[in-house]
Amino acid sequence: MSRILYRGRPDAASKPTLYRRIRLDIERRILTGEWPPGHRIPSEHQLMARYHCARMTVNKALSELAQAGLIERRRRAGTFVRRPQHLSAVLKIADIRAEITALGRSYGYQLIHCKRRAATAADRARLGADKAGKVVAIACRHSADNVPFAVEDRLIDLATVPEAATADFAKEPPGSWLLHHVPWTEAEHTISAVVADDRTAEALDIAVGAPCLVIDRYTWRSARTLTAVRLHYPGETHRLVARFRGS
Fold first, then answer.
1. Which of 64, 83, 154, 243 sits at a 20 to 30 Å CA gap from 16?
2. C-alpha span between 173 and 151 (Å, rounded)
């Protein structure tokens, strides 16, 4: 009676493929805290040299880690350990600067442009103003630990907030300035989702077509519009939360 002997390596089936070994190695470093949130992961070329493999192998491992929500890949900036999602309240007017500081992160602000001008028809429609007047049009970017957090597009009606004409929005964010200087009686939030166009993608350092969370806010005082603002947040790192009490 003959017998057939199998002389294959007993561990061959259980040995992980190289891309999976790369993924498990990076995953271990993240989950153990060796690479904390915000840590920059070695570049693809550095990982190729470390593991003696092709770029396709590294890319596959990083893609799976990104899909698992452990890392984020930023255009032109590199790959980083993903931070916890940011939470924003929708039943109050939040000061973005205070919101970021409360997360224990460093706040950054950049004024993109600020212009005092006659209100266009589009401006009047956005503010709900039926008379010609002047506005301050502001675009700015907020960041947390030097990572873009939100971009802001704001109109302030100078007929109701004349002091905004002399405010220095290069030094103080318009939202913070309004909360500290201008009382309001009513506000409205509209929440939507869009994909990033070229300008938004560049401002938030995300890919064109990436999802964005959008908040449109209108603020009034005695039925007169004070300001209208549109905020774009990176959709993958931001979510909204509201807590209610029953009557």
1. 83
2. 11
Taking the complete model, does pTM exceed 0.85, yes or no? no
Structure tokens at 180: 């500290």
Crossing angle of helices 55-67/44-51, nearest 10°?
Answer: 120
φ, ψ for residue 167 (rounded to 5)? -70, 145
pLDDT in single tens digits along all 247 residues of the chain:
433 333 334 343 445 688 888 988 898 888 777 888 888 999 999 999 999 999 999 999 998 888 877 888 887 788 998 876 554 555 567 789 988 888 888 999 999 999 999 999 999 999 988 888 999 999 999 999 999 999 999 999 999 999 999 999 999 999 999 988 888 888 888 899 999 999 999 999 999 999 999 999 999 987 789 999 999 999 887 777 666 665 5
Please answer whether residues 201 and 189 qualify as being in contact, where contact means their C-beta atoms are separated by less than 8 angstroms: no
Residue 150 near residue 141, CB atoms below 8 Å: yes
Could you give the CA distance from residue 109 to residue 93 in angstroms, rounded to a whole number? 18
Architecture of the domain defined by 86-241: 3-Layer(aba) Sandwich (3.40)
**Can you tell me the distance from the alpha carbon of 114 to that of 88, in angstroms, rounded to the nearest whole number?**
26
CATH of the structural domain 18-81, one choice from 3.40.50.2000, 3.40.50.300, 1.10.10.10, 2.40.50.320: 1.10.10.10
Domain boundaries, the chain: 18-81, 86-241
Which residue do the tokens 């930023």 mark?
A: 74
> What are the tokens at 215?
């908040």
Please give the span between the terminal C-alpha atoms of the chain, in angstroms, as a whole number. 85
